[in-house]
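1st attempt posting a full record on here, be nice pls
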Amino acid sequence: MPLQILGINHKTAPVDIRESVVIPESRVSDALTNLNAQEGVNAGIIVSTCNRTEVYCETEFDQPDPLVQWLATYHGLQTRALEKYIYHYEQESAVHHALRVASGLDSMVLGEPQILGQLKAAYQASCDAGTLGLHLDRLFQHTFSVAKQVRSETSIGSSPVSIAYAAVTLAKQIFSDLSEQTTLLIGAGETIELVARHLHNNGIGRIIVANRSYERAHNLAKQYDGYAIELKEIPSHLAEADIVISSTASDDPIVMYEQAKQAVKIRRHRPILMVDIAVPRDIDPKIAQLEDIYLYSVDDMHDIIQENMKSREAAASEAEDIISDHVHQFMGWIRTRDAVPTIRCIRDWAEEIKGETLKKAHRQLSQGKDTSEILDQLAHNLTNKLIHNPSSRLREAGFHQEEDIIEAARVLFNLDKQPEK
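the predicted structure (as tokens):
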């Protein structure tokens, strides 16, 4: 049963194409049911995020065309509108791709961990919809395990590669215990929202949010039990801040040299970390001259991120080695599954012979014959019946010089360790 993955992602398609095939969470169950109703599709999982839409399937066909047709039809699109953006993997290459996705190696931001949670949600949705087959179940369980191993055995996710996360990591390096620190966040856009979330997750003691719109500042601050102020109130609160992180669209500096100098005096020279990730800059660059203020610009943050990306790329090479090993393991499991019907037939055949031989032995016992003699006869008959067919076929193989069959028998019965007669 071919295992297939069909998808579109940030590497193969622009955002307008990716948007056209997104399947919202509210529609995933319907999409799974629709997918599984297609002829030749026996099981399916759908992963759909802002950067990728992927269909994982167990199918009775090995070509991508039926899946491409389904994806286009489901979204009311023409197949030709998607074909050049599609990638397709099957069997071993599909397993390799799934493990890379789960480990963050195929993400827009190398090593990002969010995709693993999205894969787990997709797996659960398939469970709930009843579209999860044996191979997909085992594959996704395997990907979760491998992704965990990659995280624990490499540094793929240890170095921050977003400005927001890098700024918070820098704060953690300077202040050993964030729970005792106060942060002043200037701005209320997406970057500052991410900074606030990272600070909160790292146990920051207090958050003050300053913004030109007090309402936006208040809406952000209340999510983290913070305090909102307007930009004009910054001089009155600057001395409270151990950490200042700023990202606005202002054309002019918001935090001035004299304000910072006064804040240092009030704080009795307790240090302040200032991170200015705005362009143009929000914090007067002359503030870096003050002894007790550590000022980092957006360029400094980019330098840190570039170094961290190099670290992640080195870790990604280690992760690829781990993934290659586990692809081999999973494909071995699939090949083992291919042998199951034959194993079952052999067991059924052996059980039938055992049943007939035991039945004869029980009949002899009921007639009062010697137990020892019956046991000897049972063992003799059972051995003869079990080896009769293989022996006949091996004699025939010898007659026709079918050396591959003879060699297979020696491997199958582990005869290389047995002396030849």
